[in-house]
Specification:
CATH topology of the largest domain: Oxidized Rhodanese, domain 1
Strand order of the largest sheet: 1-5-4-2-3
Oligomer: single chain
CATH class of the largest domain: Alpha Beta
CATH superfamily of the largest domain: Rhodanese-like domain
Mean pLDDT: 84
């Protein structure tokens, strides 16, 4: 035990970094447990769009949205999510909502907002538009 305390005292900075990493892993795991969303692949995404009534929200910037987006998707950029009136979309609480983004990290804010409003069928397209483009699926371009 004395060796451990001596080592801890001599390497306090390393223990601090390990403690912070451990804390971040635990807090992220707990947060992800309570945020109700499902990552889906491109095939299930197409199934939800074609066979089930689903609503697609593209969270990229307006500029990137206009350069190419999935048909019938709605653009709600990250900077505007807190000022956007979601009630304008007139969605029922059981509507399947699929989010598209560059990174899945920024989608946690969207998931939290929609969860607080009572939406419980929330999906995230894994790898965003990258997989969509790789499969050469159609995009709408506006200038």
């Amino acid at each position: 035990m004395n060796n451990f305390l001596y080592f801890f005292h001599q390497h306090l900075f390393i223990f601090f970094i390990w403690f912070m990493l451990f804390f971040l892993i635990i807090s992220t795991s707990i947060k992800n447990f309570f945020i109700k969303s499902i990552f889906i692949d491109i095939y299930y995404f197409v199934f939800l769009i074609n066979k089930k009534k689903s609503f697609v929200i593209d969270t990229r910037s307006k500029k990137h949205f206009l350069l190419g987006h999935i048909p019938y998707s709605v653009n709600i950029p990250f900077k505007k999510i807190y000022n956007f009136d979601i009630k304008k979309l007139s969605l029922s609480k059981n509507t399947r909502i699929i989010f598209i983004s560059y990174s899945n990290v920024s989608l946690n804010n969207y998931i939290e907002i929609f969860n607080k409003l009572g939406f419980n069928r929330l999906y995230i397209l894994n790898n965003g538009l990258d997989d969509w483009n790789i499969k050469n699926l159609p995009l709408i371009y506006k200038k």
